[in-house]
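ok so for the tutorial part 2 we go from a plain amino acid sequence to predicted structure tokens. step 1 is just haveing the sequence, like this:
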Amino acid sequence: MVAPTPVPKPAPEFAPLFEALTGHHPYPWQQRLFDLLLLGEIPADIGLPTGSGKTSIMVVWLIAVTAGAPVPRRLVWVVDRRVVVDQATTEAEQLAIRISEASASPALRDFRDAVGGVSLTASEGELAISTLRGEKEDNRAWSKDPSRPAIIVGTVDMIGSRLLFSGYGDGRSRRASHAGLLGHDVLLINDEAHLTLAFASLIGKLAKMESNTARVKQLRIVRLSATHQSGHPCWPESLAEDQKQPEFHKIFKAPKHLGIVPAGKQHSKLLELATAPGLARILIFLRKPNEVREVAKTLTRKLGNKSERIICLTGTMRGFERDQLIRHPVFQEFGAARMPSQSCWLIATSAAEVGVNISSDRLITDLETADHLIQRSLKQS
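step 2 — the prediction. this is what the tokens look like for a chain of 381 residues:
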């Protein structure tokens, strides 16, 4: 008996659905990526500038999954910063909320049904969202039903250990299933891949091992970065069409003025620049955590009643402190599209350089190596 040939689903109108899910009209690169996913083509390396909506890859992928594209049904977003993990989780949760809203538009109601249709059990169109990082309990939504579309956001150690059958906090009974779920039918986005070369090498070898088998739904890898190595080919080859969009042009071609000045004694010039007149979000980068604390203390005395507008971010902060920081109103102003009503200050080490979704109007940094300065410059709008 010959099985009937499956009838391909008609491709949905991408732009209206993307706008309904995100509140923004898609950039051309997002439309082109969707078209590639429909064909089952997944770029191995994606290079996009900071602020161009990299995390929207989650939305593009999910629309492609519901359209019947030959792409994995689980998306694993890996980044080596807990703060960034939590920000990416928030993006994924907002997507799930949009889908599940009772007051959704007819297009979103149909989309919710399509999400539910992918799973064998989630009849209500629920998208599984899970976070795998230290000091946060796994809600196990991603591992209960292997047929359910899921977004898993995690750190390198949490995802890497599970791929190697040694998941932190996993009992023996779960290690094999977690390795299978993360290594099979998965689109793994290695965010800021240039910072985690050992992990990139590991997942590359795992994907190559799978490609030598007859397995159909394999592990697919995307290395994502705003700063790919010069001469390294990556997709998209050109952003010329995107730059014709006013919002994208504003991000990509924003004028930036560079000044190099002597630091002065005890960061005197830094403090002068940080308190210069004008409404701004001021981002200050320093090399050491103790310097961050010293400058924050001095700036607090200098600003007086505005001192509550000063926050700090260093790699030595405890998980609880980082969780509080992400929810802090001042930190959220550094990620908002609108200018705040009052100036605010974020003093940080290199922990804020990569992946963290923040932008500033005035950037002050000590002299560092070129790679650090490039990353820091991307945080100025």
